[in-house]
Design a protein that fits this description.
Elements (H helix, E strand, L loop, with lengths): L7 E6 L3 H13 L3 E7 L3 H11 L3 E3 L2 H5 L6 E4 L6 H10 L3 E4 L7 H14 L3 E3 L7 H11 L6 E9 L12 H4 L3 H17 L3 E8 L11 E8 L4 E7 L9 E5 L2 E6 L8 E7 L2 E7 L4 H15 L7 H20 L3 E2 L3
Parallel strand pairs: 1-2, 1-4, 2-3, 4-5, 5-6, 7-10
Antiparallel strand pairs: 7-11, 8-9, 8-15, 9-10, 11-12, 12-13, 13-14
Helix pairs in contact: 1-9, 4-5, 5-10, 6-8, 8-10
């Protein structure tokens, strides 16, 4: 394993818009991060990125970056189908790995990635940045404390607004799933955090006329969690003017989060109990930076990352059940 000092040296593979607008700027400003290197298929593009963000190395070969001793950890932001192989390669090179979601386009890939990191003794985290939103922390604690009693039903939407993909995201071989892997996994992840439980049954319907290639752009999902909570979930990239809201019904109250389920907008949280209703505003934080900072701290302190590789595997297991339910038109048990 590469020796790590007081700062974590980062290499990035995949330098698209999300990395340029979120993760790379976060690595530049986070005191414990050192953006060392980047990889692109095009040398000129890699050079431009390195100049723009102060990285010392620019590569077209991922293995060359992995051989650099100044790189302690890699952030993987390539098309979904490549994630597992790139995680395995990084682990074998002794690098810690922070992978964008999904960890794998299927359970076998996600498990292979997790096993490789465990065998190599390196940390594996997944960029489920929404679980780091302040409202998720607060509502998770509120539910655990029983403020609204026992949770019975949750209704939520996670939606980007209309999109049309003419790139790898429209290809199921490259992307796996569409709206589920693009936006839906975030809600599936923070539901596990909020409810302190895992889904055990799912039933799903996908749109039959996708707006982009052969992948679904709208998924309606119902889930039953191990603790009995039932969830209605709309994950889509097709509806205009979406309400990215969440409503949580308990036996002694209700929580309503408005404009909350995406990380890029301000939100409002209303809590209703027998004592009355309270409302609080939540400005949009830099969720990707919070996620990066949490992983960096975990590596430097020897803690388990949040979200971990196991969280990535759990997500893949739920997504596989969702895909099977939509394909077969029946309720499916989640296999862990």
């Amino acid at each position: 394993m590469t020796e790590v000092g007081e700062r974590l040296g980062w290499g990035i593979i995949g330098i698209g818009n999300i990395v340029r607008s979120t993760m790379a700027p976060a690595m530049v400003v986070e005191p414990a991060c050192d953006l060392v290197a980047a990889v692109s298929r095009d040398q000129g593009r890699a050079d431009d990125f390195a100049r723009g963000f102060g990285a010392r190395f620019a590569y077209t070969d991922y293995d060359e970056m992995l051989a650099n001793p100044e790189v302690h950890a890699v952030f993987i932001a390539t098309p979904n189908v490549f994630h597992a192989d790139q995680v395995v390669a990084a682990a074998r090179a002794g690098k810690h790995v922070f992978c964008d979601k999904p960890l794998g386009i299927n359970v076998a890939d996600a498990r292979r990635a997790l096993d490789a990191c465990e065998s190599a003794g390196v940390s594996l985290g997944v960029n489920f940045h929404n679980r780091h939103l302040p409202w998720v922390r607060d509502v998770s604690r509120l539910i655990a404390e029983g403020t609204i009693g026992d949770v019975r039903v949750v209704q939520l939407q996670v939606a980007s607004g209309p999109r049309h993909y003419d790139n790898w995201r429209a290809d199921p071989v490259m992307a796996g799933l569409g709206s589920v892997h693009n936006v839906g996994v975030h809600g599936l992840d923070f539901l596990r955090v909020l409810l302190h439980s895992d889904p055990v049954e799912v039933i799903a319907m996908f749109d039959r006329a996708p707006g982009s290639g052969e992948v679904e752009m709208l998924a309606l999902i119902q889930l039953r969690f191990e603790n009995g909570v039932m969830v209605q979930y709309n994950a889509n990239e097709t509806l205009r003017d979406p309400l990215n809201d969440i409503v949580i019904y308990g036996t002694q109250g209700r929580v309503v989060g408005r404009s909350f389920t995406r990380s890029r907008s301000d939100g409002e949280l209303a809590i209703l109990t027998d004592a009355g209703e309270t409302t609080n505003r939540y400005p949009a934080p830099e969720a990707h930076r919070l996620s990066l900072a949490a992983f960096t701290k975990a590596v430097l302190s020897g803690e388990e990352p949040n979200a971990s590789g196991l969280d990535g595997l759990r997500s893949a297991q739920v997504c596989e059940a969702i895909e099977r339910s939509a394909r077969e038109g029946q309720l499916v048990e989640v296999v862990y």
